[in-house]
Task: structure prediction
Amino acid sequence: MSHFQSSTLSPFTRCRVVVVGAAGYSGAEIVGILLQHEAVDIVGLFASASRAENIVRFDQLFPRFRGWTDLKVHAANATDILALEPDVVFLATPHEASHDLAPVLCAQGITVFDLSAAFRLRDQSAYPRHYGFSHAHPQWLEKAVYGIAELNRSSISKAQLIAVAGCYPTSVILALRPLVDAGLLENNSIIVDSTSGVSGAGRSPALKSLFCEVSQQAYGVFTHRHQPEMIQETLSDVIFTAHLGPFDRGILSTIHATLRPNISETQVREALCNRYASEPFVKILKAGEWPSVSAVQASNRCDIGLAVDPVRQHLILSSAIDNLIKGAAGQAVQCMNIRFGFAETQGFSAPSVSNAMPMGAHS
Result:
């Protein structure tokens, strides 16, 4: 049973945290951020079923964490997780695994941050079509809060199950949603082209992600499972094409939309700047500046640039995030900070999780 039942804790209260899926890229990034977080104790690390053959030390799986922690990664098991009495569980697990595990944990009063898509879509009938399984927990679909911190902060602060936003959708929704809310866009199709680094495919080996095989190419054309998530959260018709890029991490999204008559670039920029003026992790770039993958690498930041062709009333938005941080682990920890009343930037003091100095072992 979770120790904490309120949504806001004293800054001196510590959270007991478990990470499931710690053997994957996103799970490892969660651990790295939490090791810099002054208000949490990592009490257990677990692998998803696909990597649960052997118990192994976390720093053997990811040698960059040598000296940070001596925790071992165990096979995921609900009984073992509950025995650790966590307040928070992060699920960096496959969709079906999260679908089965999250309700069990929530039933014990634990706050769950799910990085899969198991609870992101509100339409239960969408799961067989887009994710290949039938959803058996409609009550949790109704209760789950979509985890984009900048747009759903109030709801996140009271939620027990947070469905952390997808990586591609984060880059698109942060750029588009303020403009939709302000009524600046024509109600026609929005075109999105996004390129993700190879880490977006996960750590399991695949031919297309081998060093000698990876190449810039489109995939999932008209069928990508993140498209319904974008439509749901931007409240717009979105045509989305994903691309695999020959780099390890990051997402660059280019978004095309038509502005309503007499809407200027100044108004678009003001809408974005006003929405994100006090946000620590969203930066609207100056005119003529454009986001890049390298500029946001290993950060929880989303950079957004824009330009308008006033003759065509055509808007181009460009956004960049690190798919493993703002698109996954960082977003999840940011949501945890909101949920438990911690400073929202806590855990993000270092510019790079990979290069920060060891903070001492957690046991």
Observations:
- Residues 57 and 72 are 4 Å apart (CA to CA).
